[in-house]
Amino acid sequence: MPELTGVGVGRGTASGPVLRMAEPLGEPDQTPLQGDAADAKARVGEALAFVAADLGTRGAAAGGDAQAVLEAQALMAQDPSILDDVHAQIDSGTNPERAVFTAFKSFQDILSGMGGYMGERAADLGDVGQRIIAHLRGVNAPGVPESATPFILVARDLAPADTALLDLDKVLALITRDGGPTSHTAILARSKGITAIVGVTEAEKLGDGDVVIVDSAAGVVVTDPTAEQIADAEQKRAERLAAASAPLTPGALADGTKVPLLANLGSPKDAAAAVALGAEGVGLFRTEFLFLDAPYAPDVASQKASYVALLKEFPGKKVVVRALDAGADKPLPFLTDSGEENPALGRRGLRALRAHEQILRDQLTALAEADAETDADLWVMAPMVADVEETEYFVDLARELGIKTAGVMAEVPSLALMADQVLGVADFVSIGTNDLTQYTMAADRMLGTVASYQDPWHPAVLRLVAQLGEAGARASKGVGICGEAASDPLLAVVLVGLGATTLSMTPAALADVRAELSTHTLDEAKAMAQAAVAAPSAAAARAAAVSSVSTS
Questions:
Q1: What CATH number has the domain spanning 249-551?
Q2: pLDDT recorded at residue 329
């Protein structure tokens, strides 16, 4: 068992002893209810309230992406449908622990069967159920083990509540058996800069005390390493830490070619931290936080206040705001259709906004008014755009309402295939590599069973990026990357070689990407890109890019 493989998160390297996470609580027995049903319901209600409050507290402490994830879990703990099911079972004579277990498992099975984003959330729901049962039993919920010395954590999967609050002085790296590149574990590990490899199917072979090396850049766990391998891993770790603490400089290739490095943000309160990590602006500002969990769309004034707060953090710098991207994994009762069999292919993004144009008009108006009161360079783009007609619709409406720079996201392959026409209308294009990969490979990006297809290194995806890059160069217009692919330092170089003019990513990835770009010239980036595009598979594309570097 010299090496185990999985999906690497980031570029970190770590070595150390393994410490396994405890297995989940055992299934509650089916002993009939003892005592009064009303008392049992009260106990369950108290347990649900405790868990919801605890998750909320953990979220507030973690902040950023983790806060949104944990707040969503807190809502799960208070779901009235689940509580009704628990009460019905208690009324029929089931003990409280068993009632909670059965109710949560039933909803988990439903979510798993739905697949996609909802399927990925089944694990989060299971964690909530475990926490409630633990509280009813009066024991600690399964969580990260305690240790006096640093260790590498190995788990079947890691709940968002645990990932968000990992002690990075103790947890050197994370290895999980389950999960894909878009699971909450991977997303939170990336946003916190945790060295991690997910989807390591043979992770159960690792035992407490086993010394391993975790190389997230290669997606490899080296078991039983030699002293020389450990020394090399520690050297890589030290070099990465030194690069992260080096003085901040603008993104650029080794030959001086500028590649602005921007941040993906989901709230104005995340802006200051992004700037501190070297963000040169914002390449993707997600506006969904203003609309989610709201019974109706916010008015112009409330939206404007949030946009002003964001833009004031970036005077003179580029800020790309995405119009509301609802649908698929983000349904809204006042905007999206309910009951779609496959919402990822349904009325989402611009499609939904066109059906409710006043919502789009209000958002663009709020953005234009915020732009007029601040000094940032505001760019606004539409999500889920399929062709030139949709591009013209959005750009014309945006300009009518006072937006100076209007563009579209390239997430649908049809848009990439019509890139020349699209860039004849739009001021810029931003490539959402998560969805572009999903639609190119016909693989739901939130479904773990097809995670191996959800790889932006696939040459089919890279060829579409190349078409967009070439069209942008001909039109002298920007083509940015704002998907997770930009967080992969080596792939970031390849994307620049394909014609990307800016890269936007989770702020924690900025240092690694900046360091990697500085080691390659534009000619080398183009050579790496050509080698990757010519490869037959995602794995072969990565290998070809690496080989191109070593032979150049």
A1: 3.20.20.60
A2: 56
Mean pLDDT for 169-186 is 82
The CA-based diameter of the chain, rounded to the nearest angstrom, is 77
pLDDT tens sequence across 237-267: 888 888 777 788 999 999 999 999 999 999 9
The Cβ of residue 42 has, within 10 Å, a number of other Cβ atoms equal to 12
Judge: domain 3-22+144-229, CATH 3.50.30.10.
Answer: yes
**Residue 184 annotated among the catalytic residues of the structure:** yes
The whole-angstrom separation of Cα 490 and Cα 235 is 19
Which pair of tokens denotes residue 183?
């699971």
Distance CA 386, CA 407 (A): 13
Contact 184, 163 (CB under 8 A): yes
Q: Which of 135, 458, 482, 520 is catalytic?
A: 482
The active-site residue out of 184, 356, 458, 520 is: 184
Neighbours of 359 (CB within 10 A): 21
CATH 1.10.274.10 residue window(s) in the chain: 37-137
Beta strands in 287-433 (DSSP E): 318-322, 377-382, 406-410, 428-431
**pTM, 2 dp:** 0.73
* CATH of 37-137 given 2.30.42.10, 3.20.20.60, 1.10.10.10, 1.10.274.10: 1.10.274.10
In the residue annotation, 482 being an active-site residue is answered as: yes
Interval 454-504: pLDDT, tens? 889 999 999 999 999 999 999 999 999 998 899 888 999 999 999 999 999
**Strands 406-410 and 428-431, bridge-based pairing:** parallel
